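We keep the chain:
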Amino acid sequence: MLLDDRLARGLDTPMSRPRDWFSRLLAPGSFARNAAVLGSGTALSQLIALAAYPFLTRLYTTDQFGVLTVYSSALAILVVVASFRYELAIPLSEEDGEGFDTLVLSLAILLGFSSLTAVVVVAMPDQIATVLGSDGVRPYLWLLPIGVLGAGLFQALSFWAIRVGSFTSIARAKVFQGFGLAGTQLIAGVVSGATAWLVVGDVVGRAAGSGRLGSLVLSSDVRGDGVPGWGRLRSVAHRYRRFPAYSMFAGLLNSAGLRVPALLIVAQYGLTTGGQFGLTLLVLAVPITLVSRSVSQVYLSEAARLARTSHGELKRLFQATAVRLAAIGVVPVAVLVIAGPWLFETVFGAEWRVSGELARALSPMLFGQFVVAPLAHTLTVLERQSTQLLWDAIRLGLVVATLGGISAQGGSALLAVSVYGAAMFVAYGLLYVLNSRAIDRASRAEAASS
């Protein structure tokens, strides 16, 4: 009777145990559920943008996309330092009041940085255009401080939402970003097709959803003490001083490694090629976002646990995850190599076939990034951030050496991108080795202390 009762209630049966495990895994507040919510919002936002590209490439020219590429690359680098990385400390404060003070500090620095950017843009537009490698971006530089303010605001408020556990709000805000970006660029493209609207759409897309996230702050009880004065702001600035001292520099190196290539392509080969390269990066970013980042979140959770309990198990997880990602990534990369130019020409229009050729040249980098980037959290959980910083510096050096070196020798854009893609594949291979060796060192230290 006892067995019959258990079966009747569905307890401890082969079918119920996985179901119960899955229910616990995705229970409200669990890491997996939160990761799934955030991942779905990011994925949907990316898919909305991707669905708009076939229309945008027929509304705007390659030169116009080149301007967008320069603008968005410069903006992405500036946003990293816009709040001195204090926004990263918002979820870390033990007290909500201190977390609120850190948010206010981040926003105050952001406002000052955006204002300074506006002054520099007004005072030195020609010099900035020269640094960015294209005079074509000069008429749209006035949008740069607005973009910094909007993107920085969304970034800071997102970390507040993480602090209060409102992951659904972040996911919805990211979907608003996708609609804001695609909607603005599409509607404006049909009405006027002016380059300014392509850039304005990027600004709108980065800031959209901030109102929803801002409402979480306005509804919070921690505002009872009022807006913090200089004393409280100075206190949290000192408490988290390591963020501007270390994290800001590390983030700047990482962002430069990702964004400088597009700026170098524009500077050396012009806006047309820069636009082709920019579209290639936008399209190739989608699989990284949809698959690699989701795996990254799950890997981080499990790796953090194993780093405390068993470095041997961590090594097996590391290797098994790499093999599985390689098995997943080899198929789309092969398709890109075989049919990349034809796919880009068919989907985005005849003038974008060059983007497909550039995508083919970048396929080694895409494969390496897809497999290794999620595993880089190994250095984080083993507290080897200095190794990550060293790798970021090496990658940036390879970017400048390959793209700058080939163009200086008179090589074509396709040759430069091909050499760059191969160099990045080697760089990600190096990152894999550095992560693996970090585990081995931790295992030896663990064995020596036992």
Notes: Confidence is low (pLDDT under 50) at residues 1-26. Residues 30-240 form one domain. The radius of gyration is 23 Å. The chain has 18 helices and no strands.
